[in-house]
Amino acid sequence: MTAEQIEANSEKSSGAVEPGRASRKVVPRRALGEWNPATRGHDALQTILAQNEIRDPQLLALRHGRMAASPWTYYRGAAAVMAADLASAPHTGINVQLCGDAHVLNFGLWNTPERNLAFDLRDFDETLPGPFEWDVKRFLVSLVVLARANNLPADRAAEAVRQGYRGYREWIGTYAQWPELDIWYDRIDTDKLIAYTATDDDHHLDRMVEKRATKRTSRAAAKKLTTMVDGSTSIVEEPPYRTHVLTGQGEELEEIIRGYHASVPDHVANLLTRFDLVDAVQQVVGVGSVGMRVYLALFEERRTGDPLFLQVKQAGPSVYEQFLGVSAYDAHGARVIQGQRMIQSATDMFVGWTSIAGRDFYVRQFRDGKVIPTGDMIAGRLPQFASACGHVLARAHARSGDAAAINDYLGKSARVEEVLTAFAFAYADQNERDHAQLATAVADGSVPSTEGWPGK
Prior knowledge:
By secondary structure, the protein is α+β, with helices and mostly antiparallel strands.
């Protein structure tokens, strides 16, 4: 008798009510490890290109260049591809507020409104209610793809997947026993993150994190990104990554800001009235976001000249909406921000949204203590970092969904860990094939591309 059968018999004999057991009939846990390219039902390259419709045409070649750089950059930009692939198979129906793009580098640190550093999910462009396992799978696959990008051996990648799943599984089990208010108040601070990731020779890791956070502020950004032009503060250009494309369009930007003011609480709107907009540029950020209209707006406090940077980012439909149904919100900026508030333990008080000229936007602070990991930074401690991320993802799902149902579905058997590890490697192989398809199209000129990164 297998461990899974023993567990099932034990549960049956206990007579316990298990809200997740019915989902095992819809998606047997062994099916979590299955990947069949023959049934995916779409062409990955066409799925990528279909996203270009709402993007700035002048930036599409840059987007393709960034995605074609490596299987890892491709994965970061190909949330739509994986969404279609996940939707090609049955799902559990145990819904949570999906992050939607829970790859390992979309976890990071930043200041809460109380000015404390917290470790949490940080990207919500694709957020939508959906089956919990979709976030889990995107997270676990990312560990393999990142490990390969950093030339880690397969056994190290497998250990990272196992630790990432265990972090999720163990904390879902814990949250299933906690009162709801305790779940909502739970927060992973720097001390908890250091406890996960520090090794015996990492005595100064906590100070390194604090030092990085101290440098990631509007004041520090102003020193690096601005200059004085004719007596006024101006953001320094770095074409094509940062350009003054809004020159002569001040009225439109002011309308965006006015609409944004209406979406924030009164006390924040009142605070913002003490700042003047002095400059704005268009930015290129990330991989998946390239081509979406993103603006960096610089405000100065009227009394002291203290700088405040806000990022205004275009929001389109979530890549999951065609499979899970349209968002309940009228504006995609609202979808992003309300999903962020649902998922995060503490959210930047300046977040808000607006719409103009048929486009939706959301707004957030630029930097504000953000410490975003890089592949090089975490590769040496990937299993430990994965465990911390698993904890964060479990807390996000427990806030918005039924932790007890997820706990009952996953059970205590090690079999789920094994099948999800198999899926992570199988889908990482698929990601490499999809990347090769895009790279070939770039090489033969059928997909336009330019160098994707500054300095290249």
